[in-house]
Amino acid sequence: QSQLVESGGGLVQPGGSLRLSCAASGFSLDTYYVAWFRQAPGKGRKAVSCIDESGDLTNYVDSVKGRFTISRDNAKNAVYLQMNSLKPEDTAVYYCAQSQVINACNMPIEGLFFGNWGQGTQVTVSS
What we know:
Blueprint: E1 3-7, E2 10-12, E3 18-25, E4 33-39, E5 45-51, E6 58-60, E7 68-73, E8 78-83, E9 92-99, E10 121-125
Parallel strand pairs: 2-10
Antiparallel strand pairs: 1-3, 3-8, 4-5, 4-9, 5-6, 7-8, 9-10
C-alpha cells in the first residue's frame, strides 16, 4: 500500500518551532515533487511549500517565506518542513502530497496536480 504519513505536529507557543515529516511507504518518493498544504479551521486547503525530486527547486507562499524551510532526504524516503517563528495564523492541519506533473512546484502551487494525500498533522500555535 502506497501512502504518505505526516508527523511532527503539536502545540507550540508563538515564536516557537516545529519540524514536520512526510514519510513515504510502499514506494520510492524520489521521482516525485512533494508539497505541503495546510487547512485552517473553516477554510480551504492551501499550498505552503513545494520541493522538486532532487531538492534543487523549492518554492514557498509569501506568508511563510523566511520562516519555513522544506527539504528532503531521498535515502530516508521523506520530506520535511522546518517551521520557525510560528504565528497563531499558522494554526492548521498540515498535509503532504506528491506529484509527477512537470513543473508542479511552479507558483502558484496547484493542489489539483497533487495526490496520495496523507492524513494530516495538527499544528496549533497558541500561548
